[in-house]
Design goal:
The structure holds 2 protein chains of 2 kinds.
Chain A (H helix, E strand, L loop, with lengths): L2 H20 L13 E5 L4 E2 L7 E6 L15 E7 L6 E4 L4 E7 L4 E7 L10 E8 L3 E3 L4 E13 L14 E5 L6 E2 L3 E8 L2 E2 L4 E6 L4 E2 L4 E2 L15 E4 L5 E5 L4 E7 L7 E2 L2 E14 L4
Parallel strand pairs in A: 2-10, 10-22, 12-22
Antiparallel strand pairs in A: 1-3, 3-7, 4-5, 4-8, 6-7, 8-10, 9-10, 11-13, 13-14, 13-19, 15-18, 15-20, 16-17, 20-22, 21-22
Chain B lengths: L10 H6 L7 E7 L4 E8 L9 E6 L4 E6 L5 E5 L5 E6 L5 E5 L6
Antiparallel strand pairs in B: 1-2, 2-5, 3-4, 3-6, 6-7
Classes of the chains: A mainly beta, B mainly beta.
């Protein structure tokens, strides 16, 4: 990937985050709020098999801000693996239920899913994958599509959480996304078409308002307060090898988004920003 | 309480069974058709292929004397009475599961 392509990506990304802030009149003074595709479940590391509830919401996770309408996803499935056994893919589209999700100032079309326990009956890793419908961002006259992964483990028996799934764009963990102490660091590598993306533009956000799946809303109470707008969305770059490393200062879910990884894509005649999102969970070290 | 039990390795076990220098993990579930499936492995992702698995009744009599398959699992007919499952990966690496804790 040439440096000129990287520069183009940066320009596109900045335009989008600025536009997001302008969606709400009162937010005009606070520029940077990143779009993040949520693929949320409460627990990342389960001690035993259970039904795993999921919420699919397109929002701004730090400030519980403007939540955007989702169309029917293009794909939604889980890849499971127990130890060295062969991976198994289970389609989850049939379990999607369209709902209305409430942010503080907005309501939007979203989805919940309650796959039966049989889907997650075995020990091991479960990587949930969502390819949402492209979202039309009218402020930029372009589409955004965020291919999103959330990794859950059952019973402590790992699978191949560190291997790519062959997605067009994806963030591949270098640390287990479900086993991170607060105060540690998390590393990953950004891939487009299976190859690392040097200096990829990255946004990181903390899921500051815990989703309440049964209530179909975010918890209005924030866990943390940003002293200044730069802290809402942490903007960083991948290194020359396409690797990302972030610190984990607080328990909960953290989202990493790599922006506009495939230049030149079109959807319905307009530019399409193809992004990759990975969620990971940090856990407090307590007795 | 979880029926999934982790066996913390002791130094002795580490020396005795260097091939299993991680926690042994085993879990069983009722298939709902009078059979039970047990899955096993190790916390480093290592396979449990060939690891002995015994089904023992309340008197200590071995009802089933099996071993984990190439998929690191083992399926057996559900005994009528009380029983327990012993996943035996060597000294310090035995996971015991009470049959009453095995759910669908």
């Amino acid at each position: 990937m040439s440096s000129s392509r990287a520069s183009q990506r940066v320009g596109a990304a900045r335009g989008r985050t600025a536009a997001a802030g302008l969606l709400l009149a009162g937010f005009a003074a606070t520029a940077a709020h990143a779009h993040f595709q949520l693929l949320y479940t409460p627990e990342a590391a389960l001690t035993e098999s259970a039904e795993i509830p999921l919420a699919l919401v397109f929002s701004h996770p730090f400030d519980n801000g403007f939540t955007m309408d989702m169309g029917p996803p293009e794909a939604f499935y889980v890849v499971s693996q127990r130890g060295d056994a062969a991976p198994r893919t289970t389609d989850l589209m049939q379990y999607l239920t369209p709902i209305e999700w409430a942010g503080v100032d907005s309501r939007a079309a979203a989805f919940v899913a309650h796959p039966p326990k049989s889907v997650t009956r075995s020990l091991g890793d479960y990587t949930f994958v969502l390819r949402p419908a492209p979202y039309y961002e009218s402020n930029e006259d372009k589409y955004i599509q965020q291919i999103t992964k959330t990794v859950v483990n059952i019973g402590g028996l790992p699978g191949h959480w560190d291997e790519p799934l062959g997605l067009p764009v994806e963030i591949v963990p270098l640390d287990k996304p479900y086993a991170n102490w607060v105060g540690g660091v998390f590393r990953a590598v950004v891939l487009a078409d299976g190859k690392p993306v040097p200096h990829a533009e990255i946004e990181v956000e903390y899921l500051n308002h815990e989703p309440r799946i049964d209530e179909r809303r975010f918890d209005p109470e924030a866990k943390a307060t940003a002293p200044q707008d730069s802290f809402t969305t942490l903007s960083i770059r991948a290194d020359a090898l396409g690797q990302v490393m972030i610190g984990l200062p607080k328990a909960g879910w953290w989202g990493i988004c790599a922006l506009n990884l495939d230049d030149g894509l079109k959807h319905e005649g307009k530019e399409l920003s193809l992004d990759a999102v990975l969620w990971l969970k940090a856990t407090d070290m307590t007795k | 309480m979880s029926r999934l039990k982790l066996v913390v390795l002791s130094l002795l076990a580490l020396i005795a069974t260097s091939a299993y220098a991680h926690n042994a993990i085993c879990d069983c579930y009722d298939n709902g058709d009078e059979t039970i499936t047990c899955e096993g492995g190790f916390s480093d992702g290592g396979t449990a292929v060939g690891v002995p698995l015994r089904v023992v009744d309340s008197a200590g009599k071995v009802l089933v004397d099996g071993a984990m398959s190439a998929n690191s699992d083992f399926k057996f007919a559900k005994p009528k009475g009380d029983f327990r499952v012993e996943f035996d990966a060597g000294a310090g690496h035995v996971v015991t599961i009470d049959g009453r804790d095995i759910e669908q």
